[in-house]
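pasting input
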Amino acid sequence: MAETKRSIWVFGDYRNYFQNRVTLQLLSRAKDLAQRIDARVCAVVFGHEVDEWVGEYIAHGAQTVYVTDHPMLKNYSTDIYVTLMERLAQTYDPEIILVGATSFGREFAPRVSKRLKTGLTADCVDLDINEDGILVQTAPAFGGNLLTRIVTPQRRPQMATVRAGVFQEIPHNYEATGEIIYVEMPMHLPKDRVRLISSERQPPREQKIEDASVVVCGGRGMGSKKKFRNLYELAKTLGGEVGATRPVVYSKWAEEDALVGQADKHIKPKVLFSFGISGAIQHTAGIVDADFIIAVNKNPNAAMMKMADVAIVADANQVCTALIRELKKRIRT
Amino acid sequence: MLKMIVCMKQVPMVTELPWDTRTGTLKRELAEGMMNPACKHALEAALRLKHEHDGHITAITMGPPMAEEILHEAIAMGADRCLMLCDKKMAGADTLVTSYTLARAIEIFCPDFDLILCGCYTSDSETAQVGPQLAEELDIPVIAYAEDCTVNEETITIKRVSDNFLETLQMNMPGLITLTTQNFAPRYTPIAGLQDAFDEPNILTVSADDLGLDEEIIGLAGSPTKILEVYSPTAQKNNIVMKGAPKRIVEELLERFDDRIGSVIRKDLKVVS
């Protein structure tokens, strides 16, 4: 029963808030891509008692939802989900399959692509359709120092995983209607070879610098250990974390666990403040995933200033203290 | 005896890379190589299991001739034997074809393995795909992103953090795990080991012909994905430069970029006039 119209599938990864968000973001992008190749947008949901998610995906743009609902699928099982996805894709022949680059998705998608003998691009930061109607997948390499555009010209489906936050979800529309196709649980499913012994929802870990959405990084340009302390106050005001370069840690202005760099911590904040950092590659290789960079340095030609979205030519500590004052004033009001 | 295979890759050492400051790109051909960090953690995990369970470790890599360096390093750290898959025909392989090629070599040269350990991803292409795909190719169970592992008789138990869930999982061997860099900090290479690694390196070099693989199904030719272009994102930035008195700069910054900054800290930073 092949489909008459091409389709773009989004795997419904609903286990927690962020996974569900990436699914909604992918539905939004799938909708854009579908217009270009005249395809339908479909979501795929495996689980037990999943009506809530089916409705959510239709409200966010899925025209068709394939659902396998069974008590055995209550817990996420990579082994079984891979087999279900393989069979579903062989039956309905999608043009494209998109999967959120969650921990689950990053184990699930490679295995599905292997079973379907097709290409997969990991952690895409952009997806587009070229003039030949082929999916162009942009993925980072070398910790984001380089970007690569990748296609799967011959084999189908074309598969990609995408990190959360790359695309914007469209507002939900609960008036939207979609087709729901219930797919029976296969009779002779291979036994799950991996046994889940325990699974506990983690209490939210103490915010780690790697996960922080705001990071304030400082270098020797802050001037002194005393002045460097101001960065902690700025970070606190912004609800963020403090990062440091190697020279700063060696000078004992900051603890070693604040080290950000190629051989150290890789951060990916939405906003990165960089104070008094020249921008040696050993440091900048750790910050290439930052979305928006504001750099402060007396030297307008510093490599860090070239990487920044906003380059402020001034004394790092003076801007830091002015920013603390101004933020406190504005946040209070 | 616990028979283990550790798959590893040589990656460019980014700090040593000649950096083209004009274009912001790496001159990759001049790069120094190193053992991919996650692979090194996987080797360390294997070495500890070897110590506990009277194990044997085969290290495998696929790459250009210079990649043999990491196999010497593996022997120096304590691996018993190495396979070096090296052939121009294998070059340019994507993850699907890499896992296919590795699987054929494992079937021929170490078919009676108990456990395969891989790094969860490499620092160059960062796909995290080869481990799970290799397990599929060999039709064995797999657990990715393991942070800790223990082996008992016929089973392996791992702990991992997966999307905010702390999971304990168990599978029968033979199986495959991929390891993060969370635990198993690699040991320093002992001098005595280094001696062995160069005196009598137990490294077998394997070609495509040795594996009975045709050129069309491996390497670049056999890979379903094609790279169109590699470019540097940093060279494309539209940079806004601000100068002047700190107070004025800061005011302008918060007014102009309230959407970028305020939205992240969930505060409206504009001054209501």
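fyi The helical segments of chain B are 37-53, 68-77, 95-109, 130-138, 191-199, 219-222, 246-256, 258-265.
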